[in-house]
Design goal:
- The protein is an all-beta fold and 73 residues long.
- It has no helices and six strands.
- It is 0% helix and 41% strand.
Length: 73
């Protein structure tokens, strides 16, 4: 997908898939084909239209991520 004014394709996730830790690092939660979850620390890039560029060699196109998870109180 093309983000903002970039002429090159980038890996991007919905902004609601991003979470942050108290130390300021940003991560996404991935879901494997066996429904196992894992938090992956990521570096973000450009943001446009509700999508944010992800610069991380551990993630690839097609990897499922958790979007907007809510927990009951």
């Amino acid at each position: 997908m093309q983000v903002a004014a970039s002429a090159t394709k980038v890996l991007a996730v919905p902004v609601t898939a991003l979470y942050s830790r108290p130390d300021g690092t940003t991560f996404v939660t991935t879901v494997s084909e066996h429904d196992k979850t894992a938090d992956v620390t990521v570096t973000t890039g450009q943001i446009a239209g509700g999508w944010v560029e992800i610069r991380d060699p551990e993630l690839a196109e097609g990897v499922r991520v958790v979007v907007g998870e809510q927990t009951a109180g």
